[in-house]
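Narrative summary of target 7.
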Amino acid sequence: MPLIRFFYEDVHEILNNPQQTIEWIERIVENEGKQITHINYIFCSDEYLHTLNLKHLNHDFYTDVITFDLSNEARTIEADIFISIDRVEENSKSLKNHFDHELHRVMIHGVIHLLGYNDKSEEDKHVMRKKEDSCLSLYQF
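Modeled conformation, tokenized:
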């Protein structure tokens, strides 16, 4: 049985329907032919994620998501995905998206990385955005 858990570091709980979100993520991963061993989502503040970004990636900037792939096998997914709620809120306002929509976009963005997609080049970013949109279309907001 896959295990997806949600943790909160210095922010309040924000998921409206955690079980629906878990089932959505599981479907997406299964459709890609992979299995979830565990995914820990850690929702946090800008400062918390900035500290991780500096410490682990040597990046001195704010970001909305950092995914740590802990998988040992190609077909399984084990990961910690850290998400800045401050960034999600700001992005939702600037993109004129509902907060829940932007939150789920960032959540699935981390999973898409674990499925082997990348966003280093402009072409990769375009592919990634299309994959995000496809995944989001499967979620009932």
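Strands lie at 3-8, 35-44, 65-69, 76-84.
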